[in-house]
């Protein structure tokens, strides 16, 4: 018993490598199009301690898939090894050959999976290909962690709409800005950089037209080395009120702008915005031209967008909250106060919408970030 007591049980080893595969998958979160960002590790277990022989993450744009890259790196070392994959290996001939077949051909002895693929083309078939080839398969390892990491993909496949994160920055006195003042500094530089990193991890940034009119924001990523990773900027603008001279169009050739308009929008205004290189999409509205947040998200889902960061303003946030369309809230709490002419935030630490609970808390300089998740 002396020696074997120091060897961790298989389940612990599996969790350790799956955690590493999940961390790897996060590198390309938001950058793989309709495809989820998957992490894969090939681990040899025949020596005194397990050794990683290959690693892969779904490539930018969605292909090649993670497993193919991990297997390519491992080469002949995959023979008899264990593969850890955050999503069930695919079984369909899509834009790339099936990963399940590649795993069989590589000679791996065991495959550990976190989440089964809900994609109708896969849905268990990946597992059965492996099974039939005599490979030992285990699934459900760190499933809930992996589900969080690919929440956008699972939301789109399961609910036909993207996963929506509401980001708000509130002052110590619960305000998100000052009336008529344009952009007001609520948080410091470190927190602003954290927001930009959040943008990188989402496929789209969304704001109501009121924010464009009031703040004229750029909504791009300006972190050194990540400038090219700005997601599409979506403006909820039923009446096409976005000013054609808005700053966000200055970069429209490098980072796209998508305007969601209703049938009530004036043709002339829509044309002027199209001339500024905005993509225009008509979304169904009520007879007054108002949008149902569900319909907005459904449209974005049809376009293949998996995850959206809603960045304002107060009214748009309220509408999406009221419709039950917010899945996560990222609340930055600054240390400054705005005062009497402030615009009250729809969410503060003291007024968290029903059904949300604190998932994580962190600190950025003088500011705090509280992340809330749905309890269901
Ligand atoms: C994997 N490994 O790394 C990813 C998978 O259009 P395709 O051919 O690229 O297939 C897309 C589907 O493949 C996607 O809906 C999801 O079910 C799965 N993604 N599968 O084996 C990967 N990203
Ligand atoms: Zn695949």
What is the fold's blueprint, element by element?
Elements: H1 10-26, E1 39-44, E2 51-57, H2 66-74, E3 82-87, H3 99-106, E4 110-115, H4 125-132, E5 136-139, H5 143-149, H6 151-159, E6 163-170, E7 175-178, H7 189-200, E8 204-208, H8 209-215, E9 232-236, E10 257-261, H9 267-275, E11 279-282, H10 293-302, E12 307-310, H11 314-322, E13 328-333, E14 342-344, E15 356-364, E16 367-374
Parallel strand pairs: 3-4, 4-5, 6-12, 6-13, 8-9, 8-12, 9-10, 10-11
Antiparallel strand pairs: 1-2, 1-3, 7-14, 13-16, 15-16
The structure holds ligand AOF and zinc ion.
Zinc ion binds next to loops.
Task: Tell me about this structure.
It is a single chain. Strand 8, helix 8 and strand 9 form a beta-alpha-beta unit. This protein is globular. It has 376 residues and is α/β, with parallel strands linked by helices. Helix 3 (99-106) runs parallel beside helix 4. It is built from eleven helices and 16 strands. It binds ligand AOF and zinc ion (ZN).
Mean pLDDT: 93
Identify every distinct bound molecule in the structure, by name, code or SMILES. Answer: ligand AOF, zinc ion
Strand content: 15-25%
Number of strands: 16
Strand order of the largest sheet: 11-10-9-8-12-6-13-16-15
- Gross morphology is globular
Radius of gyration: 23 Å
| Biggest pleated sheet | 9 strands, mixed
What order do the SSEs take from the amino end to the carboxyl end, as H and E?
HEEHEHEHEHHEEHEHEEHEHEHEEEE
The chain-level structural class is: alpha/beta
- Taking the alpha carbons of the first and last residues, their distance comes to 44 Å
């Amino acid at each position: 018993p002396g020696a074997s007591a120091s060897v961790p049980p298989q389940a612990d080893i599996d969790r350790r490598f799956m955690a590493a595969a999940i961390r790897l998958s996060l590198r390309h979160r938001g950058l793989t199009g309709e495809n989820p960002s998957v992490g894969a590790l090939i681990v040899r277990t025949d020596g005194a301690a397990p050794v990683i022989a290959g690693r892969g993450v779904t490539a930018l744009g969605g292909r090649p898939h993670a497993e193919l890259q991990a297997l390519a790196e491992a080469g002949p070392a995959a023979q008899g090894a264990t593969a850890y994959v955050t999503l069930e290996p695919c079984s369909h001939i899509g834009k790339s050959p099936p990963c399940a077949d590649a795993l069989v051909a590589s000679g791996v002895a065991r495959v550990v999976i976190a989440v089964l693929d809900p994609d109708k083309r896969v849905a268990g078939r990946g597992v059965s290909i492996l099974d039939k080839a005599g490979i030992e398969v285990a699934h459900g390892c760190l499933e809930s962690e992996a589900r969080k990491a690919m929440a956008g993909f699972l939301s789109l496949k399961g609910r036909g709409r993207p996963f929506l994160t509401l980001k708000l920055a509130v002052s110590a006195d619960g305000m998100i800005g000052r009336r008529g003042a344009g952009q007001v500094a609520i948080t410091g530089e470190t927190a602003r950089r954290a927001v930009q990193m959040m943008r990188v991890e989402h496929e789209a940034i969304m704001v109501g037209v009121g924010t464009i009119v009031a703040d004229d924001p750029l909504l791009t990523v300006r972190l050194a080395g990540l400038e090219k990773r700005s997601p599409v900027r979506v403006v909820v603008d039923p009446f096409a009120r976005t000013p054609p001279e808005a700053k966000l169009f200055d970069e429209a050739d490098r980072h796209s702008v998508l305007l969601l308009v209703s049938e009530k929008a004036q043709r002339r205004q829509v044309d002027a915005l199209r001339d500024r290189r905005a993509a225009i999409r008509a979304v169904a509205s009520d007879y007054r031209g108002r949008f149902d947040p569900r319909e907005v998200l459904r449209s974005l889902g049809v376009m293949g967008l998996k995850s959206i960061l809603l960045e304002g303003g107060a009214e748009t946030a309220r509408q999406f909250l009221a419709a039950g369309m917010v899945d996560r809230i990222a609340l930055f709490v600054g240390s400054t106060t705005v005062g009497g002419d402030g615009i009250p935030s729809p969410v503060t630490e003291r007024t968290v919408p029903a059904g949300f609970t604190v998932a994580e808390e962190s600190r950025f300089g003088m500011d705090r970030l509280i992340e809330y998740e749905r309890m269901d």
